[in-house]
Amino acid sequence: GAVVSQHPSWVICKSGTSVKIECRSLDFQATTMFWYRQFPKQSLMLMATSNEGSKATYEQGVEKDKFLINHASLTLSTLTVTSAHPEDSSFYICSVDRADDYGYTFGSGTRLTVV
Amino acid sequence: GENVEQHPSTLSVQEGDSAVIKCTYSDSASNYFPWYKQELGKRPQLIIDIRSNVGEKKDQRIAVTLNKTAKHFSLHITETQPEDSAVYFCAASRDGGFKTIFGAGTRLFVKA
Asked: How confident is the prediction for chain B on average, in pLDDT?
């Protein structure tokens, strides 16, 4: 199946700084990637759909100016958490839509802690 | 909007017993239903999936059933083992390129 690499796996940052998370599709050209957020003991919540070469589509309640998504190539999507605050501390996971057989492959996730 | 409801939120069974997790979806156009197992601090792993053109699929101790008319699908784990303890998520989506909607998750405890 598709191999998805996500970096970093964990990051601690100071409040007010920005953090960039990368999601790479290593063996599949992904026109669509998804970004999820998961708070402790809760389900995965879709934040946005990242489309190669166009603007991302954000879910209701997700601030697009705070969570910047760039999908500049078929193998890379980035999520930047701008001006991070402690409430942004969460587990962020990307997934690649394989489209061919409806499969979705997840990245390994990034645990963000804002102090 | 679309949503997926999952029950129960917590399930505790004795080793060797069966476990059943049920989900209901709202988008009648959904045609792909994956189940994920997530161990603490790790990414969700796909354990089984079913498409709308079949009613049941089995893989060793795991089976999934789908009732399109009722918009229900269920995960069945037989002969449970302690290593089955994890959080299980059901999900529903349309054809490729459309977002996946996850259920809230079921925390399964298998007692030895």
From this structure: 90
What is the number of residues in chain B?
A: 112
Euclidean distance between CA atoms B9 and A78, whole angstroms: 32
B11-61 residue pLDDT tens: 999 999 999 999 999 999 898 899 999 887 677 888 999 988 889 999 999
A106·B93 Cβ contact <8 A: no
Q: In this complex, is the C-beta atom of B102 within 8 Å of any C-beta atom belonging to chain A?
A: yes
Residue entry with tokens 């100071």: A14
Amino acid making up residue B30: S
CA angle A104/A105/A108 to nearest 5° reads 145
* DSSP for B29-68, written as a single string: T--EEEEEEE-TTS--EEEEEEETT-SEEEETTEEEEEET
Asked if A102 and B105 come within 8 Å (Cβ–Cβ), the reply is: no
- Indicate the residue of B42, B96, B103 with minimum beta-carbon distance to A100: B96
Contact A102, B51 (CB under 8 A): yes
On whether the CB atoms of residues A67 and A80 are closer than 8 A, the answer is yes
Q: What is the pLDDT of residue B41?
A: 67
